[in-house]
Write a structure and sequence with these properties.
It contains 13 helices and 9 strands. It is globular. The N and C termini lie far apart (about 40 Å).
């Protein structure tokens, strides 16, 4: 898809690992709950024959359009729907499907989403501070930044961003918004950088200073952890025996939630955990696709 005059192609993360670990029968049913531009779906959907079915979900309408083109020549039946994976049971049941062989979720952001000015997810260029991946959602990131109390902001940045400087960042945000509303990603990134700048001291992090604050706001705006919890809770009832669930996460909050859920379902006798430790990208993959560096893949199988 062309964005800002350049074509952005999302590279599917941990593609080789998925091919190695996933066991998908030719007549199986696969649900890609974050179909995006269709990279993972095309890769794994190619294992399905004419009797197989691929269901793709995404809250982003542009992603559905891109995936439609990407997957049009697969041999299997392809069903693409705009919907949140928190309601996976509803969307699958709506198509008369009772059990599935694979549930896949890639929880990362695509190049297309990061470049989308209307979404306002990136601090690499100045965009409206929105962060809603589903335009039907309520408050934007700008609403939260400009209307929340200082303590509430600090708690949010600490809880969802795991930034130990959350109180200082929140204090700087509140001070800056008394001068003028913070309405763009560039303004917010500048405030966070100012909060974390200490003359003569260097932060040890290799990431941009605003990364954790942006992560926290995005999670809050899109209810990401709540939605992930609902997906994980519904999955055991949707998977047939020996069906698999594969989740690719990109930060510790997501990975911890997946790990805890898989362990609880293992203890309940529902899952076998196939990945005792998360599968991470090779140095070669990170070299080709730097965004893959924090990816972790966990896979469980229904008993």
């Amino acid at each position: 898809m062309a964005v800002g005059g350049s074509t952005l192609e999302h590279i599917p993360v941990l593609a080789e690992a998925l091919v190695q670990w996933v066991n998908l029968p030719p007549d199986g049913v696969m649900v890609d709950t974050t179909v995006g531009q269709g990279g993972h779906s095309r890769l794994l959907g190619s294992k399905l024959g004419p009797k197989g079915t691929l269901v793709g979900l995404d809250v982003d309408e542009q992603a559905i359009e891109a995936a439609t083109k990407k997957l049009q020549d697969l041999a299997c039946k392809v069903i693409l729907m705009r919907g949140n994976f928190a309601q996976i049971g509803h969307w699958v049941g709506q198509n008369g499907i009772e059990k599935v062989d694979l549930i896949l979720a890639d929880l990362g952001l695509s190049s297309m989403q990061l470049a989308d000015r209307e979404m306002g997810l990136s601090f690499q260029s100045d965009m409206p501070l929105d962060m809603r991946m589903d335009r039907s959602l309520g408050p934007t990131a700008a609403d939260i930044v400009n209307n929340s109390g200082e303590k509430a902001l600090a708690d949010l940045i600490y809880q969802y961003g795991e930034d130990r400087a959350s109180r200082r960042i929140a204090r700087f945000i509140v001070q800056r918004r008394t001068e003028q509303p913070i309405t763009t990603t560039g303004q917010l990134a500048s405030v966070v950088c100012s909060a974390l700048y200490r003359p003569g001291r260097r932060r040890r992090d290799r990431i941009h200073p605003a990364t954790r604050t942006f992560q926290a706001l995005r999670i809050a705006v899109n209810h990401e952890l709540d939605n992930l919890g609902q997906l994980l809770d519904q999955s055991p009832n949707l998977l047939r025996s020996r069906g698999q669930i594969a989740i690719i996460s990109f930060h510790s909050l997501e990975d911890r939630q997946v790990k805890t859920n898989f362990r609880a379902n293992y203890d309940a006798g529902l899952y076998a955990v196939l990945t005792k430790k998360p599968v991470v990208p090779t140095s070669q993959e990170v070299g080709v696709n730097p965004r893959a560096r924090s990816a972790k893949l966990r896979i469980a199988q229904k008993t």
